[in-house]
Amino acid sequence: MDYIKIRFGDEFDRFGSHFERTLQDIFRPRPVNPMFACKDCGWVPQMDIYETEKEVFIWAELAGVEKENLEIEVNSKAVRIHGVRKELPKPAEGAYRLAEIRYGRFERVIYLPSAIDPEVVSSNFTDGLLALRMVKMPPRKTHKVTISDG
Question: Which in 39, 41, 48, 143 has the greatest CB count within 10 A?
Fold first, then answer.
């Protein structure tokens, strides 16, 4: 059985806040034609998040990414999926007529709609689709505190 690397931790703050990342996405320069895109420029995989009463599911579209070039980090609040999609070899005598597929490094930090138990995460990577299944943390119990007089 092959395994996907999953790291656990609470250090997602070093990846920047959601607001900062949104600003970066808005103001990131985009080439007019993908053919002239920089190889080192990142791309962002498409993802779906689905939530039930007890679980959170994430599906990531990662066509062309090899499992060895994929890494997942989770904590109770967020998931970080990052890796590299290598460029496909092309015949030397050809010329591009259309170039829309992005290659190189990618990273996506997803802030979860509910706290999850990072110890209960399963993943599956089949046909370029990464599936993560995460169990929600039980709600924290609260109790009333009696206030005494003076």
Answer: 41
